[in-house]
Amino acid sequence: xxxxxxxxxxxxxxxxxxxxxxxxxxxxxxxxxxxxxxxxxxxxxxxxxxxxxxxxxxxxxxxxxxxxxxxxxxxxxxxxxxxxxxxxxxxxxxxxxxxxxxxxxxxxxxxxxxxxxxxxxxxxxxxxxxxxxxxxxxxxxxxxxxxxxxxxxxxxxxxxxxxxxxxxxxxxxxxxxxxxxxxxxxxxxxxxxxxxxxxxxxxxxxxxxxxxxxxxxxxxxxxxxxxxxxxxxxxxxxxxxxxxxxxxxxxxxxxxxxxxxxxxxxxxxxxxxxxxxxxxxxxxxxxxxxxxxxxxxxxxxxxxxxxxxxxxxxxxxxxxxxxxxxxxxxxxxxxxxxxxxxxxxxxxxxxxxxxxxxxxxxxxxxxxxxxxxxxxxxxxxxxxxxxxxxxxxxxxxxxxxxxxxxxxxxxxxxxxxxxxxxxxxxxxxxxxxxxxxxxxxxxxxxxxxxxxxxxxxxxxxxxxxxxxxxxxxxxxxxxxxxxxxxxxxxxxxxxxxxxxxxxxxxxxxxxxxxxxxxxxxxxxxxxxxxxxxxxxxxxxxxxxxxxxxxxxxxxxxxxxxxxxxxxxxxxxxxxxxxxxxxxxxxxxxxxxxxxxxxxxxxxxxxxxxxxxxxxxxxxxxxxxxxxxxxxxxxxxxx
Length: 638
Fold this sequence. Notes:
By secondary structure, this protein is an alpha/beta fold. Helix content is 40%, strand content 17%. The chain contains 22 helices and 23 strands.
């Protein structure tokens, strides 16, 4: 958006362009004619529901902000698109095998998410991947279809192996993926002890390296899997135990988010060379598990950043199928069942974090006097004069002078020769100079390097009712960016450049990088707050990992959660709601006993009564307030 556009030249299309929603939204979100974000559900026809209407519906159900909103239609659609895209690629290529997806439980372990994937995925025999004993128990309870896979990754002890073998006894297709040589002996020993033949896979350490943040998940130094020597040793040991026929799956994993389709093709081709030789060794195989990595286009740039991808879902499926055919057909080896562990791409779009803005800090001078007072120090007078001299030809010079005068003023304040009120007045003139410079920057043909980030330094701070560490841990921990935008007032031009701070008293508790198709942005254009009116923002594509990884920084707990389903009449139903953690809940997580805290506080209040500091009636009010707080939401409540 150009700063030279007339103020009335605004439309919802310009709002969609500003926030990039039609690129990263993938047809699942858009801006409606009423200026609100629309959730789009596609089931034959397109049904749209205002996100603001959903937020208002949640408020009426006493689910105050912040709320994690799950959109079941998007979750179901993602499972359908993945399975049908592979089916179409298989049919188009004449591939003589099939596809079986498994969802990695670690990506989103929440019960209603797993239940929905298992329920809707059953028609496609979509299974689950378990990386721990707890996740395996979930998979054994949720998967009832013998054609669906349960893929067991991660390090395994005897109990883990026994659980998987019992699952096979129940008729479930549970496959152990070897992560180390030691697991070979463990599986052989436990299968003999229980009298159950296992299904075994082997995870490869491929030489193929990938682009993007998760590049260390691939190559010789990857944390998991077997190198060539270990793989040969595992094959020989299975053969010696008369169990080589149990080796039915070959597995590799290049990373959680692979932005470049060439990396996918290279990994599949390399894995297929292993596949050919293992079949020649006598292993039956039959499954090729390509792991995760199907990326999410978080910024809508279609491959312009590590948080994007340069391919479509259809291209991904077609390239996988084609690469396997090209590698196996010359060797005359039957086409295996293709298995993928796509998690991020399945759940990312299904969850949206909604929160309200509580307050805002502006870096503006406010009203200035017509002239500095007679006793003003030279630095204040110089800054006031500088304000009048700013023009397009001297922006860099004025900036340099303003910085010099401000530092000189602050130095005199530290020495005690300038009073606090004069320092404050000087800083106001300084801000006025910088704001005038920023207003003129868009008119320059070339912005000086030193002034490029000046708008960011003067950006507003909007205080959001959420915790980065609880709801967006990947933003803080690994630099993941997410789309962020207002969910209403989009028919109005946003005029405030801002970053977003959370409720935690931590300098990292902020969002100051924003996903956009044209590249990451350091500020976000927002609307001015209105008195007595809520302003809602949303962070999109947060369904993968964020709930699982969230922590209790400042003891902010889980947010309220609501699952909605959009119906064919353009309405929505709240099909599940879960209240967020109370203060008592999070105190228990860190080993406090709320009853003990209440007892200690009660004793302190009683001591204050005995000392005459408070009355008995005040004691009762305090105890009631303490109890009510223990039951309350950990986030800000109006």
